[in-house]
């Protein structure tokens, strides 16, 4: 069974009538029936086919004229199961009763529906988008993790079950699994996509993000989801790329760093100027500050649930919440101030060195073997802490055929530019 077409191709076919929504959705459902027993990316739903086809039929009846079809007409979307969808349970990868977690859907889902998209399925998440993994396996090697916490969303897009899926990122939960699964991931500028309707892990740094199969689909869905999206002309030149050398980069494995050197050579050969700059000299402090802030926020967000259902939480999440109870008010304030301080420092470095876009390994290495862990998000943490728009671009593969990606991070609020630049960077890697 063939994968569903990537988002840009699907949008063209569905809006022009070259393919009907029912044909496309049935292919997605058939693909899921074929591959799901192996990868388990979707939250089980007994009546999924009936629900999805009923929605699809209704959509087709309301938009019979191709000229009036909305921008994502008939596109099936995976939705990470910490995002509320009306009419569907939210379990958040947890053992808590779904009625305790229920809530109204937020702007992200409302915008997708208004654009004609169809919710194909809830996708598997680690418990409450933290570190306790679900059953999902990497479609490229089922013996390896797809990454997390947006495990199911990354795997579903990589396996061709849907052309786009929603994830969230609090440390590295979009950018890293996109790299592990060989797809494109987009984490916007903080708050550019509203987080209403999402079960929080850390209200201070949570982001809603997106997975697509290639960069061509990114602007189509980002324009729907992001507040104040600007349609800009295609960039006339190549961005100057900044490499953050020093202790931050040294957190990556030798495999990742050797590949990253080759990636930079490829980009230089394609005409990109690459500037190496010492950055994140206090990366240990940034990491610690971010993790304390996340723990404190998690303890606050989960206070009522944890008091009633604490014994149902996974050990990893319990440890996070208990740690959060011990974080001082001064540490919380320092963590929140640190986001703006880091953003200002990175912006100043960009100004001083003529950098348009930062580039770095998207993960410490390829997807680790086993599914008991989702891998280390340390390479993503500072960009998330600063709230900068970031895109994963697949770059190469290891000798074992495992994907390696780069992440490109731009100035705060320049999501349109970062996505536009990602097309050329992806093309350079072929």
UniProtKB/TrEMBL annotation:
Oxidoreductase is among the record's keywords: no
Residues spanning the membrane: none
Keywords, comma-separated and alphabetical: Transferase
Renumbered residue ranges of the record's region Disordered: 40-73, 132-152
GO molecular function, one term: transferase activity
Superkingdom of the organism of origin: Archaea
Domain Amidase: 23-418
Signal peptide positions (record): none
A Pfam family per the record: Amidase
PANTHER family tied to this protein: AMIDASE DOMAIN-CONTAINING PROTEIN, TRANSAMIDASE
Protein name (Swiss-Prot/TrEMBL): Asp-tRNAAsn/Glu-tRNAGln amidotransferase A subunit
């Amino acid at each position: 069974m063939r994968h569903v077409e990537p988002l840009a191709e699907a949008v063209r076919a569905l809006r022009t009538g070259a393919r009907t929504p029912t044909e496309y959705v049935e292919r997605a459902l058939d693909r899921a029936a074929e591959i799901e027993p192996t990868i388990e990316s979707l939250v089980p739903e007994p009546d999924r086919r009936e629900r999805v086809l009923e929605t699809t039929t209704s959509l087709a009846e309301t938009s019979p004229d191709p000229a009036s079809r909305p921008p994502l007409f008939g596109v099936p979307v995976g939705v990470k199961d910490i995002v509320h969808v009306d009419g569907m349970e939210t379990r958040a990868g947890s053992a808590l009763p779904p009625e305790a977690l229920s809530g109204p859907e937020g702007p992200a889902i409302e915008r997708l529906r208004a654009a004609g998209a169809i919710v194909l399925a809830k996708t598997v998440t680690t418990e409450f988008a933290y570190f306790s993994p679900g059953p999902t396996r990497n479609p490229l090697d089922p013996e390896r993790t797809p990454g997390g916490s947006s495990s199911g969303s990354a795997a579903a897009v990589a396996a061709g079950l849907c052309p786009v899926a929603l994830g969230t990122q609090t440390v590295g939960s979009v950018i890293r699994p996109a790299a592990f699964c060989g797809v494109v991931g987009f984490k916007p500028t903080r708050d550019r996509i509203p987080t209403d309707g999402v079960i929080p892990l850390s209200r201070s740094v949570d982001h809603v993000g997106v997975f697509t199969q290639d960069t061509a689909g990114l602007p189509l869905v980002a324009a729907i989801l992001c507040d104040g999206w600007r349609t800009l002309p295609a960039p006339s030149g190549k961005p100057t790329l900044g490499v953050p050398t020093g202790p931050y980069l040294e957190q990556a494995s030798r495999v990742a760093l050797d590949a990253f050197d080759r990636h930079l050579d490829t980009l230089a050969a394609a005409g990109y100027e690459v500037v190496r700059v010492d950055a994140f000299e206090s990366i240990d402090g940034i990491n610690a500050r971010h993790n304390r802030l996340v723990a404190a926020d998690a303890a606050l967000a989960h206070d009522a649930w944890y008091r009633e259902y604490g014994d149902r939480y996974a050990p990893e999440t319990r440890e996070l919440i208990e740690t959060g109870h011990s974080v001082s008010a001064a540490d919380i304030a320092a963590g929140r101030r640190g986001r703006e301080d880091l953003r200002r420092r990175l912006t100043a470095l960009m100004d001083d060195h003529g950098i348009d876009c930062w580039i770095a390994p998207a993960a410490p290495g390829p997807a680790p073997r086993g599914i008991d862990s989702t891998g280390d998000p340390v390479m993503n943490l500072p960009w998330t802490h600063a709230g900068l728009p970031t895109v994963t671009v697949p770059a190469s593969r290891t000798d074992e055929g495992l994907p390696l990606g780069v992440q490109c991070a731009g100035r705060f609020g320049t999501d349109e530019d970062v996505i536009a630049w990602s097309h050329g960077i992806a093309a350079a890697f072929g």
